[in-house]
């Protein structure tokens, strides 16, 4: 027997993104090694090689990285200096620390996108509530006072957490974000028509693929539904959004999946809202709706393998998130959901149900958008317990 | 928190069928527990909960079954009496021992299918080489002598092993099968036009789904290519084959996936060749070519969940097996294969390469059969090393 070179992909973080990345890696015959906070984490339940440990500890990371051919991530929380240390040890880290910083720190991201001339909401770092009022005044036009203003802590936010809307100078939200002791970014509150996501995958070689641009519908700051492709999207806007995402991936040196969350304004302009450098909720539809899923392409990218076809397999695919409701056990709901819709694709994460927590999603594809949306919404609602027939 | 009822599926056997069943079970949020001969087996590399032990030992099986909600199988080798013992312990075994016996013992299978009036090659158990000659004479018509005759050991054969073709009374193959010390079945050698497979999945409730009938092309007794659906198959023959498989599943009380391997004769008759009660090589195309894969439906069936839609997602899907060749390392071949065909679906099993061993398969789907076949054959040949451009 000669040498066998099937690589070991090490993934930091045991959440559902790692769970689904492992699932997508199984057909490739690669080895998957997980660094997880606990043995009960979503991905740790189903992966073969699991190291339980704290990703904030460099020694733990270094021991985990031994024997890995590449390190990638379920989340963006690994300290930059630790990633640089792993790189200095000779371990490829993908995406690398210089790219990942833009997904870790919204201030750095905004500054860099401004340099690149990428369309974005007006924004700058602010130092205190008075500075928030000054930021509002800078944006005041005509009779308007520049409010509302959106404040975000530059680190640590997700799913609407770490985000405040300030409706006037006296709004207590103007002081709230400064209590966390991290930088605060102010942004104009864009009066957008809808939210889109342009998702791309890029390899170290520089090969890149762009998924169809999708519409993302948020409820209470949490992604509720994703429609692929975005209905009625102007083809020029679609191409512009894809080119924007490809350009950001290139300029920032992203390796792996990059989600570019966008606001579409009433006049068809697209503004960058957020970046994520990992598989992303707005790409879950690809598991059943695209030729190659975001998870499979993320694995291929971090291994510098040629990327797979990102195109749609069906005219419409709708993803609906399953949030925790009042019922701790969703399994009995499978009977109704599967019997009602034999084409339904359920993706559960093995997580304990907590109200509002993302514990799974469903994908439905088909020819008629209204039908596909209804089926996805019904299944997600039934699993959550908000629909009972 | 109330009780959470997501079940534990225990699978006996660590081969690629278990590997791909685990992969298909991840989205359902179920727990998967594996009994594997070694920690290096195909499925053991990727599954979360692995017990290493010998399935021939009842004590091992009993300990494994503790905490499992149902036991199912990667292979048909677990002794019937052990399965009955597990059932007596209150563990659901699916398929159950009475059904599984027909996939374990070709003599039992042939006798039962005869009772049911299922079309089959002429056959009977034979006791020695003289009896083989007698069996041939019983089938002699006109000037023919009744040879060739096919001999099979009733247990233990697979992929052409345990099968002999006897071309005349003096052929040494007439005595060879009797050396194994197990029963020997004689069958007429059917002059078939091609081989088909009718695959169905049945739940304990009695719900069943039938996959499109496929053509299976064997090379040297090993499955080489599967085409879904079988090209040019007469619609009446297709329905007849599906009904036959559904009837066998019902009459034998099969739970889970049942593969019915068929001979199609020149005049459109279908004769049952073999049965397998587990996911089967002739169903691997469903991973990428059907709405619901055989693996997902097998899991749903053994859990008595409603079954998923078995229909095709593309006009044509072709599966080509990847056999071991002279190169022990197939990973470098990914570069060419993935770059040449961004829609190619590779499924590798994590197995050491040995010449002729099934170590993976590829699936390709599309609108034009010739194109799809060429792409699948090219990828499988390139991975094996028989095609080098």
Write up this protein.
Two copies of one chain form a homodimer. Chain A has 389 residues and is of the alpha+beta class. Chain A folds into three domains: 8-93, Rossmann fold; 122-188, ATP-grasp fold, A domain (Dna Ligase, domain 1), CATH 3.30.1490; 194-384, ATP-grasp fold, B domain (D-amino Acid Aminotransferase, Chain A, domain 1, 2-Layer Sandwich). Helix content of chain A is 28%, strand content 25%. Chain A is built from eleven helices and 17 strands. In chain A, the strands form three sheets. In chain A, strands 9, 10, 11, 12, 13, 14, 15, 16 and 17 form a nine-stranded antiparallel sheet that branches. In chain A, strands 3-2-1-4 form a four-stranded parallel sheet, sandwiched between helices. Chain A has a four-stranded antiparallel sheet with strand order 5-8-6-7, with helices on both faces. In chain A, a hairpin with a 5-residue loop joins strand 13 (256-264) and strand 14. The first copy, chain A, is globular and about 70 Å long. The interface between A and B is large, with 55 and 55 residues. Chains A, B: This is N5-carboxyaminoimidazole ribonucleotide synthase. Chains A, B: ATP binds at residues 106, 152, 187-190, 195, 273-274.
Brief digest:
Chains A, B: It comes from Streptomyces diacarni. The structure is a homodimer of 389-residue chains. With 389 residues, the first copy, chain A, is of the alpha+beta class.
């Amino acid at each position: 027997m000669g040498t066998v070179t099937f690589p070991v992909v090490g993934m930091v973080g045991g959440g559902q993104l790692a769970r689904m990345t492992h699932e997508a890696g199984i057909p490739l015959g690669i080895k998957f090694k997980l660094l997880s906070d606990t043995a009960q984490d979503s991905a740790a339940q189903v992966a073969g090689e699991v190291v339980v440990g704290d990703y904030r500890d460099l020694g733990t990371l270094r021991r985990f990285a031994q024997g890995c051919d590449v390190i990638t991530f379920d989340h963006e929380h690994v300290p930059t200096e630790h990633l640089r240390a792993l790189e200095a040890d000779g371990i490829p880290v993908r995406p690398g620390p210089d790219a990942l910083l833009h997904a870790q720190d919204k201030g750095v991201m905004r500054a860099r996108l401004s340099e690149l001339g990428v369309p974005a909401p007006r924004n700058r770092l602010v130092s205190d509530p008075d500075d928030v009022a000054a930021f509002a005044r800078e944006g005041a036009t005509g009779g308007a006072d520049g409010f509302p203003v959106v404040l975000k802590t530059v680190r640590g936010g997700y799913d609407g957490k770490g985000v405040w809307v300030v409706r006037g100078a006296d709004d207590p939200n103007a002081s709230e974000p400064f209590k966390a002791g991290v930088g605060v970014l102010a942004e104009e509150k864009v009066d957008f028509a809808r939210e889109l996501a342009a998702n791309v995958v890029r390899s170290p070689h520089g090969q890149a693929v762009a998924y169809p641009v999708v519409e993302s519908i948020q409820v209470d700051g949490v992604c509720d539904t994703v429609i692929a492709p975005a209905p009625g999207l102007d083809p020029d806007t679609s191409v512009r959004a894809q080119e924007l995402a490809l350009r950001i991936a290139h300029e920032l040196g992203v390796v792996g999946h990059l989600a570019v969350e966008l606001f579409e304004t009433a006049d068809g302009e697209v503004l960058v809202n957020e970046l994520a450098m990992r598989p992303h909720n707005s790409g879950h539809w690809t598991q059943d709706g695209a030729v190659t899923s975001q998870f499979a392409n993320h694995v291929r990218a971090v291994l510098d393998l040629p990327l797979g076809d990102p195109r749609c397999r069906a005219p419409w695919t709708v993803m609906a998130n399953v949030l925790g409701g009042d019922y701790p056990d969703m399994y009995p709901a499978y009977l109704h959901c599967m019997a009602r819709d034999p084409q339904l694709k359920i993706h559960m994460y093995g997580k304990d149900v907590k109200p509002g927590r993302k514990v799974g999603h469903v994908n439905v594809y088909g020819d008629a958008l209204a039908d596909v949306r209804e089926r996805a919404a019904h299944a997600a609602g039934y699993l959550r317990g908000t629909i009972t027939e």
